Amino acid sequence: MSKITIIGAGSVGATIAYTLSTESIATEIVMIDINKKKAGGEVMDIMQGTSFRDAISITSGDYEDAKGSDLVIITSGVPRAPGQSRIDLAQTNVNIIKEIAPRIAKAAPDALYIIVSNPVDIITYVFMKKSGLPERQILGSGTLLDTSRLRYALAEHFGVAQKSIHAYIFGEHGDTSFVPWSCARISAVGVEEYTKIAKECGDNLPPMDTEMIEERVRKSGGLIIEGKGATYYAVAMAVCRLCSILLAPKTSIVTVSSMMHGEYDLEDVCLSTLTRIGVSGVISKFPVPLNEEEYKKLHHSANTLKNVISQLDLA
Length: 315
Description:
The chain is an alpha/beta fold. It has helices spanning about 10-20, 35-45, 90-105, 120-130, 145-160, 190-200, 210-230, 235-245, 290-310; strands at about 5, 30, 55-60, 70-75, 110-115, 140, 165, 185, 250-260, 265-280, 280-285. Strands 3-2-1-4-5-6 form a 6-stranded parallel beta sheet. A 3-stranded antiparallel beta sheet has the order 9-10-11. Helix 4 links the parallel strand 5 and strand 6.
């Protein structure tokens, strides 16, 4: 029996609710939005298809209806416009989260929180500061989607299933993200070694341009927004995966955004590195070794986020 509350009934929030309704993750879903009519309409549309699955409760409501939630997903905010960076969204969405944080924390003080609103690393940081909740209860979706995009690109290049690929995006969910290639593995071996072995086995693999692949991952969201106006399918699947992990009996290691406390010599900033999470929330960072170049890139990403935060009104 799991109760999940979603704050925000826009494209992302509604798609998360719909995706959850097709799976066996939650038995109760509550949608909350300042536009109550919109939230009610989304709920009605989703509920009218639930006769094809086991019984589930999906309702719209107010903050007090989040009481007893196991998970709360925050999607509220202004969406990114074509050509706009996630950082450009910062102050507008920070102002929104400053209003939401204390209200939802009061209603559901024991829930685990998944922050999806962009810029996600900054919003995660602000939610921690304004909610008053323990840090372990709060994580951002971070680069989980970016990591999925990376694995998709590598799967296309190597012609293998994505489940055979263990490669990650570190840093902010944005322009300073990067791939720590020293950690990337294809079927238990490094990327260069896999390429060598595959060629010995008769695969005619084209040369891999790592910079091009990283750029492709970073630009994916913008290209989707340019094409259809918003991104919501893949992020909904990523968030539902996080819900499954946070409700599962065993821990998982994923790239989510959480507070740094000395890992890689970083403090007081939220960004994505490998992180152990489970039913108690964020358990710890999992600080895999990085080479010197990767270490510098992670610090560059952290400093970029800190610079933006220093210019925001967080009061």
